[in-house]
Every structure is written in structure tokens, then in C-alpha cells.
Amino acid sequence: MGKEDRDHYDRPSWKELDRRKDGHGYIKEGGTAKKGRQAGLEGARQEYLSSINAMFSTTSAQRKDLEALKAAKTGPEFDGLAAHYLATYGLPSDFEELLKLADASSFEILQPVLTRLGEIIVGENDRRKELYRSKLRLIGLTIADPRVERLLERLRGH
User: Fold this and answer.
1) Same domain for 68 and 111?
2) Is 5 contained in some domain?
3) Which of 62, 57, 56, 59 is nearest to 81 (CA)?
4) Which of 11, 70, 82, 142 could form a disulfide with 104 if both were Cys (CB 3.0 to 4.6 A apart)?
5) Under 8 Å between Cβ of 89 and 127
6) Structural domain containing residue 146
């Protein structure tokens, strides 16, 4: 087969085949196909992130009340803030928030908080389980309410 035979075939060169295989294609002046795909992916990513943020976001009032709880010391002031938080927003699902609410000295606050902590601690890591056990010991040492003592006995059985 001579050179004139090869001219009859409209075959792409090896360089052209490699370029197609690597995805570099014919779009040279700005890569509009690639940019369009990336823009679509970025749009989908932003939509996903905004939906996740909306699901887990808290209102500014809730954030403010949570910050007040974190700043407060234990005692009657803390119990009042904790009671207000629970009445307004309900029981949080976050481990750290529940642990902070467990600083309350009132049985009415401690019962739902510690019960919820006992439910979610099962799937937590060893560090959090130790924090939970340590919190139960501390509550047992600082609060002399017989109802709290019975609650602690029941929860230690977990």
C-alpha cells in the first residue's frame, strides 16, 4: 500500500485519536461544553448545600438563646434559661446541646434531657460515651433529689 492508497481513507491521525480519547475534543476557544457541565454541577451543588443548611439552620433567636445557655453558670438562672429553651424550641437532637442542658439542677429539665441522651448514646463513639457516664456521675454527686437518683440508676443500666 502506497501513499496514494492511504489518501483514499479518511482516517484520523493518531494524534487526533488521542485527543478525542482524552476528551480534549474540538472546543478550543473557551471550552463551552466543559464550562456548561461544570456550571450545572456547581448549580446542583449549591442547591444541595442550601437545602442542607435550611434543614439544619436555627433561627437567630434560637441561636441567641443557645449562646445565653452556654454562657450561663449552673443554678436558678441556668434552670430558667434551660426551661425557656425547652419550652420554646423543644428537646434538641445535638449531643453537645443536650450535654449542656444536663447542667440543670431541676428534675423537670433533667428527666427529658438525660432520657434523650441515653437514647442517642448507643450509636456514639467511646469518647462521647465516657462524657455521658462522667456527666451522670457528676449529676449524682451534685443533686440530692431522690427522683434524679432513681433516673440516674435507670440510665446507668444502659
Assistant:
1) yes
2) no
3) 62
4) 82
5) no
6) 60-156
